[in-house]
Design goal:
Elements (H helix, E strand, L loop, with lengths): L12 H20 L5 H13 L4 H9 L7 H13 L2 H13 L7 H5 L1 H9 L5 E5 L2 E3 L2 H14 L3 E6 L6 H15 L3 E7 L8 H10 L2 E5 L13 E2 L3 E4 L3 E5 L18 E2 L2 E5 L1 H22 L4 H5 L5 H7 L5 H9 L4 E9 L8 H11 L4 E5 L3 E2 L2 H12 L3 E7 L5 H15 L4 E5 L2 E2 L3 E4 L3 E5 L3 E2 H5 L1 E9 L1 H16 L2 E3 L1 H5 L3 H12 L5
């Protein structure tokens, strides 16, 4: 009989006792000092109590959102970037309040509190877009993106959560390398966790060609204390004149070209021109330079400031010498759409700017709210906003996928949808995987961006959305959502209740962990 004694590993008693004591300290912290919502605290209590000793503690360190060695440094860097736009924000806020009754844009009049909140609490300037173009399928988006990249003369700035080394990934990389060799300033920021399966040497092709690539919060080396904070933004800025933003990453599956991942993918991107492009670019540059500074670990404000070139201020303010009044004249000129680019920053003091904006939009609704989201695991604040709006007579319609890329998200989202149906909220199950992130209110104001309706997007990811204060553009968004609803299956609470009891039990179990998904 084989002797397995040599394979047995005895953990010293003092190590076991020390680990148990640390686990107890973490449990005490969650019970008495954790400031998150009760549901998230309960999940962590379950993990710390029932997981093997030490495992729950490690998970808390990595995923709780509290233990991150560089939080203060990143927060300081973001505050430095915010300084550039502070004077313009103050002037815009003052002028909006002074001229509320005479503003030429009646949509802005109706949403002045939202605009003001985004200005002062979310650091989001009021900007404008010209002739925005919508893309609802990956093939059309990638074709247009490649054409615009080929036309680039001065700069290309790109950031994506996922960048695959596949057909479209290689095609875009070839264009980027060629433009870099032609002298175009090419910067590519990719999330290191989202691109974990993409080899680093693939991105180094751009560096060799004369461009620059950079991972966001490196997790491949050492203890990944940054694992919880990921850059979920997807944006391309070309020559500071045109920008793309929305739900699509760089990968074949977004165009249904991946034979191993056919989900009938439906997504939304928007191409923009106007001063909103500069706001998107300033967000990209803030991400880019803060990562350089984070890697080099500057110790003082002065040394941090050296990573932000003086030209950044001009890019944010768009010729600040003209003053706040003229900037508002530009926003409200004929043919222009008033916009605000809003962001989430988990390292900042205000982590939920986008969720706050969404809730304010919903609470201001009078007739209807349309939502498209690939995941639906909202926190209590968002659920309450939907419930109150529905009880107030607002018709709320939410489109979710029929096919999913993550089975546990399907389970948790189904349980949330089942509950929200009881409040009169209508759900539509799309025949495929709808990855679009859109919100529309009363046919007046709409949002397109990268934010899912889940806790991770609301508070743990770097996200970016554009708000459009315009009826004509919002009507285009409504038409897209209504078309999706026509192709979808309308469901109610009875639909979910008809599912087998063990399926609903699994939904409920997965929902417990939704704050961590």
């Amino acid at each position: 009989m084989p002797d397995f004694s040599l394979l047995h590993w005895d953990i010293p008693l003092w190590v076991h006792n020390l680990t148990a004591a640390c686990n107890l300290l973490f449990l005490i912290f969650v019970l008495f000092f954790e400031r998150k919502e009760s549901r998230r605290r309960f999940v962590w209590i379950l993990i710390l109590v029932f997981m093997p000793t030490g495992v729950g503690m490690v998970l808390y360190i990595l995923f709780s959102g509290h233990i991150f060695a560089a939080t203060r440094r990143i927060r300081d860097l973001n505050e430095i970037a915010d300084r550039f736009s502070a004077p313009m924000r103050d002037r815009q806020k003052t002028l909006l309040l002074q001229r509320k009754s005479s503003l030429p844009n009646h949509v802005i009049k109706a949403f002045v509190p939202l605009v003001g909140m985004n200005l002062m609490e979310g650091n989001s300037l009021l900007t404008y877009a010209e002739s925005p173009e919508l893309f609802t399928y990956g093939a059309a988006f990638f074709d247009d993106l490649c054409q615009e990249l080929e036309k680039a003369q001065h700069s290309i700035n790109m950031e994506f959560f996922i960048y695959r080394q596949d057909q479209i990934g290689n095609k875009v990389m070839e264009i980027l390398c060629r433009k870099a060799r032609e002298g175009v300033d090419v910067k590519l920021l990719y999330d290191d966790f989202g691109c974990f399966l993409t080899r680093v040497r693939f991105f180094r092709r751009l560096d060799v060609a004369g461009g620059k690539s950079h991972p966001f919060f490196l997790v491949r080396v050492g203890l990944p204390l940054t694992l919880n904070y990921r850059n979920h933004r997807k944006a391309v800025i070309i020559d500071s004149r045109k920008a793309y933003i929305g739900g699509m990453n760089i990968g074949d599956e977004y165009a249904n070209w991946n034979p191993r991942r056919r989900l009938n993918w439906r997504d939304t991107m928007v191409k923009l021109e106007g001063s909103c492009v500069l706001a998107i670019q300033s967000n990209f540059l803030g991400d880019w330079y803060s990562q350089e500074a984070w890697v080099n670990r500057p110790k003082t404000i002065e040394s941090m400031l050296s990573y932000f070139p003086p030209s950044l201020a001009g890019k944010i303010l768009d010729n600040p010498e003209r003053g706040g009044e003229n900037s508002l004249v530009d926003v409200f000129s004929e043919g222009r759409i008033a916009t605000q680019v809003i962001t989430n920053d988990p390292c900042g003091s205000k982590k939920a700017n986008i969720e706050d904006a969404f809730i304010r939009m919903i609470m201001g609704a009078k007739k209807n709210v349309y939502i498209e989201t690939p995941y639906f695991t909202p926190d209590e604040e968002f659920q309450n906003a939907l419930k109150i709006a529905s009880y107030s007579g607002v018709k709320i319609s939410i489109v979710i996928p029929g096919d999913w890329d993550k089975f546990f998200m399907k389970a948790a989202s189904s349980d949330f949808a089942r509950e929200m149906c009881a409040f009169g909220i209508r759900f539509y199950i799309y025949p495929g995987f709808i990855h679009s992130k859109m919100i529309s209110v009363d046919g007046k104001i709409s949002s397109i961006g990268t934010t899912n309706i889940d806790t991770r997007s609301f508070s743990l990811h770097f996200e970016e959305n554009v708000l459009f204060y315009d009826e004509r553009f919002t009507s285009r968004c409504d038409a897209i959502i209504e078309r999706d609803m026509q192709h979808s299956q309308a469901v109610n609470k009875e639909y979910f209740d008809r599912q087998p009891i063990f399926v609903r039990a699994f939904w409920s179990f997965c929902r417990l962990f939704s704050p961590l998904m």
